[in-house]
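Here is an idea for our session: we take a single protein and study its fold together. Once you have written the record down, we can walk along the chain together.
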Amino acid sequence: DALMSYETGKAGEAMEKVADAYFGIFEGEKANMEIAVRRYLSLKKAKELEKGFGDIRKAMFNKIPAPDIKKQTAVLIEKVKAAAKELDRKGVGY
């Protein structure tokens, strides 16, 4: 959703959606994936994922071309999915 907003020229809205994904899903109380990643995978991995969200917001703020942000987003999505898969493999609920 954030990427679609950005591609239609709504950078502010897009950055809010990235923040919502970070605070509502990755770091939010209900899912709290960040704590699970930190505890069961590594602090380094948690920081890497956290940085990915921030980097996307910064790129949007700096008006980086949409195709570049799309690449960043795809990389972050794959990293989050890989972390989730690893947590699932370890039997961790988050």
Observations:
- The helical segments are 2-7, 11-26, 33-40, 43-61, 66-89.
- The mean pLDDT is 93.
- The chain has five helices and no strands.
